[in-house]
């Protein structure tokens, strides 16, 4: 039940000593469950440590040189894409300032832009037969962007909804969600990662697939009985362009986080429930779980050859990637590499060589060499576990790993409330037997209980080792008290030097989980739409007007500050009104809104954008529809009257 305490403890370069005794205490006592670990950890902390950088001495934040503090008018040098958690959106932060610049609604309605209210957004989100939204809750965890030649190419980002097993795509030219796909036969869709190039066609040096892990196993088919049927997880491949599910792979155990190799050949997911237990005690009964690797080219060849089945009403081909069916390396679709008890994150190092699995219930990181995994698939390596080139102790509760591009990895220690900086090649040397190899470079306290972290450009070939953001799950005393619900604390750390330096705290609404940070010049967002992007655009104010077809009424209108093209329009009580509004203003930043009192309507149209809403005209009367987005000195005067006749 406990972590492997027999493992030799590495001398810690920061203290020169073997890890302190508190670690041993938590080691033996707390790991019956992570929850207990949190309690033990928080109780052992003093209430208000002022500066977190216990292990770091250079107080960059104390003098004027804090690069996180931008002058007014200064732009950030990095974009951060943050998953929004329960709000079902993606948040765009500027870094190093930590300023939130935009929220991109995906899975949940959003009152600012009218997401979930306009017909266009409802179509993307999905509706029931009566036209209402299928879902209005979500739980986003992971956001990742498309690649070209190993770096972000600025086309797309993706985010998952764990509750309803949906994946949303964001166009990074307009920063809007344009497609959502629900994965069939999947519950607890958790990890996602785009591929980085094609496994077969060398000309395709960019993302064409997104891999999705199902954390919860379910009976397949899921018939609604608690019989002794084995629960199963599916690893899904979604087409990056069409957003259709290309195939799924049925595995032993479950999926958690996902990583992909730079050559496109391998994708992998960590598994904490190789036991296939239904209760947490069962899920932590084995000493080792696994990281399962998928041979993408072989899986797609199997699908082409018709070697698949389907489940329920889904037509998506499902290949058999279970252990038993894949014992022969030469034909195997999957390879199971063992990893200590209940691992969590798996991250690809920017040197393209390794996947690093964070131990969670084990105080270790496991380094798996990808070339060796490929060797196993070629029959050149006897055991999958021979691909493990290091398994070293880092501290308590390792969850996720980032990189600086200079050979160092940074891993969050949830229970220790620390980030540990460690050198991957030295860890490999230590594992090989060189006990003088000091792989731990630095440790820094964070506030508190960190989950994800990510460094600038971390999981790309262009990892630049400047900033590290750490998503702390508990903020406790770091912000003004606001009642029982605390914000999360996203901390920014300067990792440009040998020692990590804490730069800033940023409160964020719960609960972001994961994020990526990339150089701002990788994106060239457009700030004005093209009229032709919208098939229903009202291109000329002269096209404005009301047309009736029985009880269905179409209202076409344009906006040009400070007026709507119709000063009034008339409908009848009970009409099904569809209102199309095109913003003909071309000026950057000139957005208009449109609200209809008493009818639950409010949405915006950005420059040259068209949006439409459909609603039922209510009680007879005059309704002042007005512009909700400040656009002009006469913004308050920008109105139109809807007259509802009896
Ligand atoms: Cu570690 Cu959902 Cu990525 Cu949260 S998961 S932390
Ligand atoms: Cu248009 Cu305010
Ligand atoms: Ca387990």
TrEMBL record:
Highest rank taxon of the organism: Bacteria
InterPro entries: CcO_II-like_C, Cupredoxin, EfeO_Cupredoxin, N2O_reductase_N, N2OR_C, NO_Rdtase, Nos_propeller, NOS_propeller_2
Limits of the Cytochrome oxidase subunit II copper A binding domain: 550-646
Keywords: Calcium, Copper, Metal-binding, Oxidoreductase, Periplasm, Signal
Location in or out of the cell: Periplasm
Keyword Calcium among UniProt keywords: yes
EC number from the UniProt entry: 1.7.2.4
UniProt keyword Cytoplasm present: no
Catalytic activity: N2 + 2 Fe(III)-[cytochrome c] + H2O = nitrous oxide + 2 Fe(II)-[cytochrome c] + 2 H(+)
Pathway of action: Nitrogen metabolism; nitrate reduction (denitrification); dinitrogen from nitrate: step 4/4
The protein's required cofactors: Cu cation; Ca(2+)
UniProt xrefs under Pfam families: Cupredoxin_1, nos_propeller, nos_propeller_2
GO annotation (BP), single: denitrification pathway
Any one GO MF annotation of this record: nitrous-oxide reductase activity
CDD domains, per database record: N2OR_C
GO cellular component: membrane; periplasmic space
Family: In the C-terminal section; belongs to the cytochrome c oxidase subunit 2 family. Belongs to the NosZ family.
Record's subunit section: Homodimer.
NCBIfam families from the UniProt entry: nitrous_NosZ_RR
Annotated function: Nitrous-oxide reductase is part of a bacterial respiratory system which is activated under anaerobic conditions in the presence of nitrate or nitrous oxide.
Protein name: Nitrous-oxide reductase
Species per Swiss-Prot/TrEMBL record: Ideonella livida
Lineage: Bacteria, Pseudomonadati, Pseudomonadota, Betaproteobacteria, Burkholderiales
């Amino acid at each position: 039940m406990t972590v492997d305490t027999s493992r030799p403890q590495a001398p810690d370069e920061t203290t020169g000593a073997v890890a302190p005794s508190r670690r041993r205490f938590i080691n033996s006592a707390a790991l019956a469950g992570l929850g207990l670990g949190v309690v033990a950890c928080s109780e052992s902390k003093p209430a208000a440590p002022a500066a977190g950088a216990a292990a770091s001495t250079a107080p960059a934040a104390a003098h004027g040189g804090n690069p996180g503090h931008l002058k007014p008018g200064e732009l950030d040098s990095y974009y951060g894409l943050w998953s929004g958690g329960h709000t079902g959106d993606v948040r765009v932060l500027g870094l190093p300032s930590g300023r939130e610049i935009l929220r991109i609604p995906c899975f949940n309605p959003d009152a600012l832009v009218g997401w979930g209210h306009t017909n266009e957004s409802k179509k993307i989100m999905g509706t029931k037969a009566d036209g209402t939204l299928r879902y209005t809750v979500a739980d986003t965890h992971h956001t990742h962007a498309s690649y070209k030649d190993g770096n972000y190419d600025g086309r797309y980002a993706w985010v998952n909804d764990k509750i309803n097993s949906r994946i949303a795509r964001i166009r990074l030219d307009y920063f809007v969600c344009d497609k959502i796909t629900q994965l069939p036969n999947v519950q607890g869709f958790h990890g996602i990662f785009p591929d980085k190039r094609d496994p077969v066609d060398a000309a395709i040096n960019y993302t064409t697939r997104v891999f999705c892990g199902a954390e919860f196993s379910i009976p397949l088919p899921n018939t609604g009985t608690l019989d002794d049927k084995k629960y199963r997880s599916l690893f899904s491949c979604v087409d990056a362009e069409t957003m259709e599910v290309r195939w799924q792979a049925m595995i032993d155990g479950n999926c958690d986080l996902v990583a992909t190799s730079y050559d496109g050949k391998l994708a992998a997911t960590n598994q904490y429930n190789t036991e296939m237990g239904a209760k947490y005690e069962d899920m932590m009964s084995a000493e080792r779980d696994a990281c399962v690797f998928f041979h993408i080219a072989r899986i797609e060849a199997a699908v082409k050859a018709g070697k698949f089945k389907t489940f329920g009403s889904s037509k998506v081909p499902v290949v058999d990637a279970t252990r038993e069916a894949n014992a022969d390396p030469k034909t195997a679709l999957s390879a199971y590499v063992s990893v200590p008890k209940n691992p969590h994150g798996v991250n690809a190092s920017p040197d393209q060589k390794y996947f690093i699995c964070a131990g969670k219930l084990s105080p270790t990181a496991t380094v798996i060499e990808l070339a060796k995994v490929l060797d196993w698939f070629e029959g050149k390596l006897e055991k999958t576990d021979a691909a493990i080139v290091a398994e070293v102790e880092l501290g308590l509760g390792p969850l996720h790993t980032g990189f600086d591009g200079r050979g160092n990895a940074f891993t969050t220690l949830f229970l220790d409330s620390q980030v540990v900086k460690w050198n991957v090649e030295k860890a490999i040397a230590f594992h090989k037997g060189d006990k003088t190899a000091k792989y731990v470079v630095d440790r820094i306290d964070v506030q508190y209980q960190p989950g994800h972290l990510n460094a600038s450009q971390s999981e790309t070939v262009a990892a630049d080792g400047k900033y590290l953001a750490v998503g702390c799950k508990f903020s406790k005393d770091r912000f003004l008290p606001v009642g029982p619900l605390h914000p999360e604390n996203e901390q920014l750390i300067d990792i440009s030097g040998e020692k990590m330096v804490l730069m800033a705290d940023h409160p964020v609404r719960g609960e972001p989980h994961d994020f990526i940070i990339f150089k701002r010049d990788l994106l060239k967002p457009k700030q004005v739409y093209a009229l032709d992007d919208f098939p229903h655009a009202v291109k000329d104010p002269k096209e404005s007007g009301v047309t009736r077809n029985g009880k269905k009424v179409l209202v076409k209108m344009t906006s040009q500050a400070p007026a709507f093209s119709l000063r009034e329009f008339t409908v009848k009580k009970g009409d099904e009104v569809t209102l199309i509004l095109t913003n003909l203003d071309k000026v950057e930043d000139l957005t208009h809104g449109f609200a209809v009192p008493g009818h639950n309507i409010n949405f915006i149209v950005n420059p040259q954008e068209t949006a439409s809403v459909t609603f039922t005209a209510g009680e007879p009367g005059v309704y002042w529809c007005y512009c909700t987005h400040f656009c002009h000195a006469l913004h308050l005067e920008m109105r139109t009257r809807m007259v509802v006749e009896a």
